[in-house]
Amino acid sequence: MKIICTGRNYRDHIAEFDGGPLPAEPLFFLKPDTALLRNNDPFYIPDFTQEVHYECELVVRIDRLARHIAPRFAHRLYAEVGLGIDFTARDLQREAIANGWPWERAKGFDYSAAVAPQFVPVAELGDIRQLHFTLEINGEVRQRGYTGDMIFGVDELLSHVSRYITYRTGDLFFTGTPAGAGPVERGDVLRATLEGRELLNFEIR
Fold first, then answer.
1. 62, 115 Cβ separation under 8 angstroms
2. What does pTM read for this prediction?
3. For residue 200, what pLDDT is reported?
4. Beta strands of the chain (E only): which ranges?
């Protein structure tokens, strides 16, 4: 199982992050399987960073072995979606960007990919291009996402990455975060909903 993540896929997040140009094609990176945080287990802030940020995202679970999939067939790769948090050591990421280094330390550390314990059938949710999700911290809404605001839609993302990487059953695909990403602190409680369904609810320690 691998975790594929999308960068810079919402205009408002790009504006708040660095204000840079919109990508001409999907940008993606990988997290190792050891990054997975399951079952709403608590997230422990690691000792090598002073600034961990949350990024709530729609997550697609891949159902089959596939490669080189055209966009019009990409919907066949999945039947369920969920939510996840891409935890980022923002201080390490800034250092990596400044020096032209890879981002693995900032993005791929252990338990940096929290994934909801249950996924929801797309058939129950409706059009994947019109889904709403929300992240609350301590009861305050911090992020509101709408898949219609994505620069590259789910099927376009899946098709693009399939040119380079073969999918296997169980792979997880994070589709990018909207505006509102920010820091977490010990004691915070993160709660995320997809079309009103609570999928994530866990504590930062």
1. no
2. 0.96
3. 98
4. 3-7, 27-31, 36-37, 52-54, 56-62, 78-86, 88-89, 113-115, 120-121, 132-137, 140-146, 172-174, 182-183, 189-194, 197-203
